[in-house]
TrEMBL record:
InterPro entries: ADH-like_N, ER, GroES-like_sf, NAD(P)-bd_dom_sf, Quin_OxRdtase/zeta-crystal_CS, RTN4IP1, YIM1/Zinc_Alcohol_DH_Fams. It is found in: Mitochondrion matrix; Mitochondrion outer membrane. It comes from Microcaecilia unicolor. One of its GO terms (molecular function) is oxidoreductase activity. The gene is RTN4IP1. The keyword Repressor does not apply. This is NAD(P)H oxidoreductase RTN4IP1, mitochondrial. PANTHER family: ALCOHOL DEHYDROGENASE RELATED (PTHR11695), RETICULON-4-INTERACTING PROTEIN 1, MITOCHONDRIAL (PTHR11695:SF294).
Amino acid sequence: MLGALRRKPFLLGGSFCDGGARVTLFWRGHQLKRRQCLQREIRTSSQRSTVMPGWVINQYGPNDVLRFNKNVMFPIIHYPNEVIIKVHAASLNPLDINMRNGYGAASLNMTRDPLHTWTKGSEFPLVLGRDMSGVIMECGLSVKYFKPGDEVWAAIPPWKQGTLSEFVVASGNEISLKPKSLSHAEAAALPFVALTAWSALINTCGLQKDNCTGKRVLILGAAGGVGTVAIQLLKAWGAHVTAVCSQDSSALVRSLGADHVVDYKSENVEEQLKEVDLFDLILDNVGGSTENWAPNFLKPWSGAKYVTLITPLLLNTDRLGIADGMLRTGVTIATKAMKHLCNGKHYRWSFFAPSGVSLDEITQLVDEGKIRPVIDEVFSFADVPKAFAKLERGHARGKTVIAVI
């Protein structure tokens, strides 16, 4: 309850920019105090008070569109519930590869500019990167539960400027105090994948520690970022987990708590799964042809769910436009859900959902030793293109982390 209250935005008081001029709102009787608070300056050079280094793209395309820019516009607080964070570490997700290629641009640009007042291409220069761990440098007026100097972590929504830069702006609703047991590099590996797994298991499936004991769960693509977190969450709640991955990753997923490992390279996965009991939940991080056969291994007429993270929503809006794309997506999900419901099974899509309150609970699980980050490799800030190239090759075990500092 306290976590939810602390992130309720307040509309009175704050600072914002209007045509480059800093406008200050203050309450009567506290003019001097508020003015002094708002005029705090970040301790940087005069040049860095207006620009900062970061990795940007000025067009969509392959890896060579990435550019290092020393003059990225310094982020500013537009709303009173926002904070400016100095990024110590970030990490990459498959979504960053897709966004670099232009995937989801129609929907994301609509979110950035609902009234279409901007011109085409106005999202550039675009900073990628969703995960971050860092230190708060400045707080808006209604931010009451964080202060400058706090170490925090967050997953920034994809319609905002990303974390592959020296500073980033985030809402107080999106951040949480960093787990004390993790370094910044370790912490940066978790937020996006942890919140994606959390959204799938809790928001979509209705699972939690009170009702998960004894549930049989199958995870497809278990060695990826979302899969490794999902295994740990489910085991912390008492579920039985079967993980599908390659033989090379079997030791990793077993170390995270998986009870049974299926090697998709050794023989047909369907044949191997016929030898085990049916499942209460299937979490699909792979998509494609798995959707055709995976639901067959759910317990019928028991409330069992097939949940996939691979959906056609953004692809449809890119190809057909917002209105037609949303219509096509609605028809698709309704058709598939009805088809599986007739067989006594539930079909669901799940999406990443930014939430500082959920990160509060994940922080507690991390500090209790129930969840740990799985890091494949750490790159320097100068090697961001190499990190993208590695992630694009696929088959990573865990996350690719960028040490910004």
